[in-house]
Amino acid sequence: MHPVDLIRDSSILVRQKFKFNGVPDAIKSPQGKRRNLMNNSFDIYEMVTNLIIERLEKGVIPWKMPWKAETGFPQNLIYKKVYRGFNFWFLLTVADRFGSPFFITFKQVKELGGHVLIGEKGFPVVFWKLIDKEDKDGSIDRIPFLRYYTVFNLKQTEGIDESKIPSTEAYDHDFDPIDQAGKLIDCWSDCPEIRLDQSHAFYSPSGDCIGMPDPRTFYQDEQYYSVLYHEATHTTGHISRTGRHEKLRDHSFGSNDYSQEELVAELGAAYLCHLSGIQNATIDNSAADIKSWISNQGR
């Protein structure tokens, strides 16, 4: 099953039990007040589903990140508590975009003496818990109690004392270059420019260049090369090489062309990992990605 279909189907199963309808006003409001959704007509599951798919369609796949950049994990600035579940994955992509892992409510910004920048929009944080409610007959029912509120990334604010902002550090280890894996890139005569120290991995067809995070921020050395090989395979579709990108024009996430290109890139990365002898450390992730892209072919 394709990732988008899996997300939609899972959301439908959940919404069959808990249903809310309407538009979340709090998301549009800078005050970001916490809302009790038991009395609101609002489908929170549809909102969550759409937010995930929106990020996927922009090419951001947050759970496929075998590195930890300097932004760190998304967390509340006041409590230093890392978000969990959907909030973690969603805000991880937001933190990557703004360059700060810290999020804060409108009220917390004011309490710290700052303010939200004009025109900035917040992001929803959702959570739920089960509460006990006693019925007239004395029996106890467990009812899902859902809430959501709006948070802003620290970069969307100003006026907060810097002494109250913790420093962030990327995952760091002594990267040990793998000679055989590096040679596959070094001996590539038509290799495009590789720009290191990027917040995420990418290939830019317009600039014909590869962007990669610092190798030291990867959890395993082999993962660095696996991601590099994936992006390098994308470059082979450039018009100056095979011209594959001219035939696969639909780059929207979930399209057949997009899936075919990702399948090519992941297969290419898997082959190169095998040639360089690092396949044992990367094959599981490659197999999972290849399976998901194959499943979308012919839709």
Q: Determine the fraction of residues in helical runs and give it as a percent range.
A: 25-40%
pLDDT under 50 segments (min length 5)? 10-42
Question: What structural class do the secondary elements suggest?
Answer: alpha+beta
How many domains comprise the coordinates? 2
Number of strands: 10
In N-to-C order, the SSE pattern is HHEHEHEHEEEEHEEEHHHH
Could you describe the 3D structure shown?
- There is one protein chain.
- Helix content is 38%, strand content 16%.
- It has 299 residues and is an alpha+beta fold.
- The protein has 2 domains: 162 residues, no CATH class; 116 residues, Arc Repressor Mutant, subunit A (Orthogonal Bundle), CATH 1.10.10.
- The strands form 3 sheets. Strands 1, 2, 3, 5 and 6 form a 5-stranded mixed beta sheet that branches.
- The radius of gyration is 22 Å and the shape is globular.
